Amino acid sequence: MAWPTLSPDRQKLAYAAQDGNGVWHIYVAALDGTDTPRLIADGWAPAWGPTGLIAYTGCTAEGACGIFVVNPAGGEAPQRLTNSENDTAAAWSPAGDRLAYMTLDNGNWGCVVGGFGGQHYAPGGGCDQRGAAHLVPGWDAARVCRTARGELGSLSYRG
Q1: Which tens digit of pLDDT belongs to each residue from 95-123?
Q2: Alpha-carbon distances of 63 from 22, 130, 136, rounded to whole Å
């Protein structure tokens, strides 16, 4: 089990796990153990948002990769928001209307903020691939924060 994330009501857990072939899948299970974990998508690094949607990194069977959003209650196909297998570590804004995520561009990791209309804000700066494991975006009110080699930085975001 990897990347555990709690539902907004703290009653369920989403996580990623590999099958016997090394393929990652996203599962949802009740914390009290009353049901069998349910497969909701193929992918990794799930992040449960405040509105109940789950963002994750993955690829379709056709090879289209990026960050996807899915309703864990089912009924709808996952929506792909980005177009790169190098987009990962999604973090929801407090209102659930935007995602911050990391992307690898020309050998540098950077933080991107995206809405559901395809508009993105890419802050300046980045770090080399050696620092990638330490880059995880997070939100604090209207600021997006990320760690880079153990240091916390913040970016003001409006819009």
Answers
A1: 888 888 888 777 777 777 776 655 454 44
A2: 16, 27, 25
Same domain, yes or no, for 76 and 125? no
The residues, any chain, with a CB within 8 Å of residue 75's CB and separated by 6 or more, are: none
What is the domain range of residue 106? 93-159
Contact 149, 140 (CB under 8 A): no
Q: DSSP labels for 4-64?
A: EEE-TTSSEEEEEEE-TTS-EEEEEEETTS-S--EEEEE-EEEEE-TTS-EEEEEE-TTS-
Single residue among 85, 103, 119 that ends a domain in this structure: 85
What is the rounded distance in angstroms from the CA atom of residue 28 to the CA atom of residue 13? 6
Both 38 and 57 in one domain: the answer is: yes
Flag whether the pTM goes above 0.70.
yes
Burial class (CB in 10 A: 0-12, 13-18, 19+), 20: exposed
